[in-house]
Amino acid sequence: MQLADNAALGDDGAIATTRCRTKPNSHFTLALKLNHRDGVPHLRRDIEQFMRAYMPATMKTVGCTHP
Predict the structure, then answer these.
(1) Is 3 helix (H, G, I), strand (E, B) or coil?
(2) Contact, 28 vs 7, CB < 8 A?
(3) Phi and psi torsions of 18, nearest 5°
(4) Domain ranges across the chain
(5) Nearest alpha carbon to residue 65 among 14, 10, 15, 26
(6) Are the CB atoms for 28 and 18 separated by under 8 Å?
(7) Are 12 and 33 spatial neighbours (Cβ–Cβ below 8 Å)?
(8) What gap in Å lies between CA 45 and CA 60, rounded to an integer?
(9) Rounded CA gap, 42 and 20, in Å?
(10) pTM here?
(11) Mean pLDDT in runs of 10 for the chain (67 residues)?
(12) Alpha carbon 5 to chain centroid, angstroms
């Protein structure tokens, strides 16, 4: 499953943007920034799991549909 049209995932955050049909906007962007924690090996995986769950749920809440 693709997260978004464009996405970047890092050790301390992520950003994803996708086309979205809402008025007056044409894109939806979700950014997540965490305080970096050294020595947390699962953090990147947790960030990805969060983005995969939160982005579609938020898009649905705001009425965003992918064209």
Answers:
(1) coil
(2) no
(3) -145, 155
(4) 6-61
(5) 26
(6) yes
(7) yes
(8) 23
(9) 31
(10) 0.78
(11) 82 90 85 79 85 91 81
(12) 10
